[in-house]
Amino acid sequence: MGVGSPRYGKGVTGIEQKQGGEHTKVDGQVVVFSLAEEKYGIEISSVKEIVKWSKTTELPQMSDVLSGVIKLRDQVIPVISLRKQFGWREPENLADTKIIIVEIDNAFIGINVDDVDAVVHVPSSAVEFPTGLTDKVDMIYGIAKLQDYLLILLDIRALFSSEVMEEIAEQSADQ
To answer: What's the CA gap between 164 and 113, in Å, rounded?
Structure first.
């Protein structure tokens, strides 16, 4: 069962929305996943399903961050390694990892992560917005201060370079 199903509740439009340069905080459901030793979250409304790792098929001349493509319900889906995207080495055992299937601009993309932990409600009062912490701040909605850990909230649209998104769009058009 995918996390976009009624069992997990309705998603939200975003944890943070930018309006006129200002940040507006919004309460929301977030899918929490692990990458290395950190916890990350993406808004549930973008997540279509979570699957166990399956071997990817590599394509010639594909971007370094693409692990390859998988077949899921007769659809070819590109899989992006967030570890590669962040400049980290891959885990020793890929078979223990998960793929989060997300939808961006009507294209399905798999995001390879170490593990998927939970779906949590993140109240806007728990979110702070990082400024000056990283030059890649566009990809971070905020940092949620939860009871047991800090949760880095990612904007999946800002995660990937325009070149990678163009490559994925071309693959989707070819299907």
So the answer is: 18
What's the topology of domain 6-174?
A: OB fold (Dihydrolipoamide Acetyltransferase, E2P) (2.40.50)
Question: Is the separation of the CB atoms in 31 and 18 below 8 Å?
Answer: no
Residue 27 corresponds to which tokens in the numbers above? 């309460």
Residue 129 near residue 16 (C-beta atoms within 8 A): yes
Residues of the chain with pLDDT under 50: 1-25
Q: How far apart are CA 82 and CA 74, in angstroms?
A: 24
| Domain residue limits, the chain | 6-174
One-letter-per-residue 3-state SS of the chain: CCCCCHHHCCCCCCCEEEECCEEEECCEEEEEEEECCEEEEEEHHHEEEEEECCCCECCCCCCCCEEEEEEECCEEEEEEEHHHHCCCCCCCCHHHCEEEEEEECCEEEEEEECEEEEEEEECHHHEECCCCCCCCHHHEEEEEECCCCEEEEECHHHHCCHHHHHHHHHHHHHC
Half-sphere exposure of 153 (CA within 13 A, CB side): 29
Alpha carbon distance, N-terminus to C-terminus of the chain: 25
Nearest to 30 by CA among 110, 91, 119, 100: 119
Q: For residue 30, what pLDDT is reported?
A: 94
